[in-house]
């Protein structure tokens, strides 16, 4: 599994399975005429591991959070509980 080195591997595996099921349900509902799409997505996942976190941040988050590291954003969201305010400057 991908959970080696973590203390609660059963919990991690359960979350992974739920995420995979949710993705499958979403793909099947959004792309009903493409029955092989979910399988193709799963086959692409291993190659995504080679993409660095910095590249992911640039592609998907830089317009939203600016130069704020995604780790900082996640930490602040987790520590704030339900009262998260958006203190980050987005790039226009």
From TrEMBL:
Q: Which SUPFAM superfamilies match?
A: Nuclear receptor ligand-binding domain
PROSITE patterns hit by this protein: NR_LBD (PS51843)
Aminoacyl-tRNA synthetase as a keyword? no
Asked whether the keyword Thylakoid is assigned, the reply is: no
Q: For this UniProt record, give its keywords in alphabetical order, as a comma-separated list.
A: Receptor, Transcription, Transcription regulation
Q: Which intervals hold domain NR LBD?
A: 1-81
Cross-referenced InterPro entries: NHR-like_dom_sf, Nucl_hrmn_rcpt_lig-bd, Nuclear_hormone_rcpt_NR2
Protein's recorded name: NR LBD domain-containing protein
Q: Which organism is it from?
A: Sinanodonta woodiana (Chinese pond mussel)
Organism lineage reads as: Eukaryota, Metazoa, Spiralia, Lophotrochozoa, Mollusca
């Amino acid at each position: 599994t991908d959970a080696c080195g973590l203390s609660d591997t059963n919990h991690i595996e359960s979350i992974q399975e739920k995420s995979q099921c949710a993705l499958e349900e979403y793909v099947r509902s959004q792309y009903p005429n493409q029955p092989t799409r979910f399988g193709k997505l799963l086959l692409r996942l291993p190659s995504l591991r080679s993409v660095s976190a910095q590249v992911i941040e640039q592609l998907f988050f830089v317009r939203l959070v600016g130069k704020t590291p995604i780790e900082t954003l996640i930490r602040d969201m987790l520590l704030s509980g339900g009262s998260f305010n958006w203190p980050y400057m987005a790039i226009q």
